[in-house]
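To whoever picks this up:

The nightly regression suite flagged CubicO group peptidase (Beta-lactamase class C family) as changed. Nothing in the input moved, so I suspect the structure step. Input below, exactly as stored in the fixture:
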Amino acid sequence: MKKHAEFVWLCLCIVFINNAVKAQTTKVEKIEAYMTRAHELGLFKGNILVADDGKVLYETAMGFTGASEKTPLTTQYRFHIGSIAKEFDAVALMMLKDQGKLSLDDKVSKYLPQLPAWANTITIKNLLQYTSGIPDVKWKTVKTDADDMADLMQLKKLDFEPGSSYAYNNNNVFLRRRIIEKITGITFNQFVEQKILASSGMNNSVVDPGDDVPLMARAYNKNHQQDPLTVPISGWTAVTLDDFYKWAQAIADFKLISPQSTKDILIPVAPGKQAGLGGGSMDGDKLVSHIHDGTAYNYQALLVSDAPKGRTVILLTNSKNVSLYQFNTAIQAILDGQPYTQPAKSILISFQNKLDSLTADQFIAFYNDLKKTNAAEYGFDDENSLNEIGYYLLGKNRMTDAIIVFEYNTKLFPNSWNVFDSLGEAYADKGDKQKALLNYKKSVQLNPNSQSGKDIIKKLEQPGN
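Regenerated output under the current build:
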């Protein structure tokens, strides 16, 4: 009788394992079909990695290594990752903080005394939060680090008092890297190579790759014009899929910096802003989410980590076309066994010039006409198309038009937490705290698992905000 029971139990275990394997296989097939369609529509050319429950389920390359489109990509190719590479200097500073070599309250002038008097008013924390007031790099004239430092030496006045406002720009990053060099006595690139990449097992990543570096994907535009590899200021790390995944794991496992230091560079200073690690959330000393996107010329990258699920989605392209977030949204839905929308062409990218010449109300009318005639070709089945347009308008400082688009999106998709989150962000940017709170609360009501939404609500409800 005992042996019979053991046999039955064994059979049940086998059935359970087989069903689990079959479910995972089905998910992989759906992801493969989705990304293949996106590639065939010309929406995605690049490399992708999907991990779930701590295991890589899907990893592939679809596209070409450069503008000639003669050599197919492989997963061994390196890509620039744009602003995500700023994570390396943010983490480097926190490593030095954890070692007692600096304080976030230290003034920039402590390490770079040659700078004008304004350096005595800016803290390292300001640089990490983009609240320093330093103006952006003069991209039209700056060609080297020395050029940028010369401009800063001539700077007479900040754009705003440090800590009083926010401006996302690369001079904050530039000074972070110079401070690291001053403290360590080695170049920033050497620090990244020796203390970060090596410690994380990222053996195939390269800082500031040149034309002679093998297996480097080259970015190019729709007209097959290839971009340069280098940018005016130095310190940009190019990664492979596997190395990028190791980086995500190093952050989630606190391999390089402490949980508190991670929190210091993960949580933005205000809703809709960027922190050193982009953005995300934590529950006590545990990472919950880590989300960051980056663009450099026609390179584009997206990292989305959901630590409790052991889930990571990485998308890398060298031929920027549409927002990578739409692919992530579908992949997350597939992994969760939820409905998802098939890939479609971007309305924003296809009709950006028209959007620039129309009011929001006029463009919504155009959107509805397009929906009648080209429903299968463009994205009308979910909120992403109008959300993308809304954020584009926000980026153009067309605040009123952005809110009109987001408001319309909530009417089309009243059960989407994401649209109310976006509308809340727009109202927060406008300074309308009441309407921001109203929409963030609606978003969290629709998605009670949105920790970032809860964090924003808590912050907005604090006195003085």
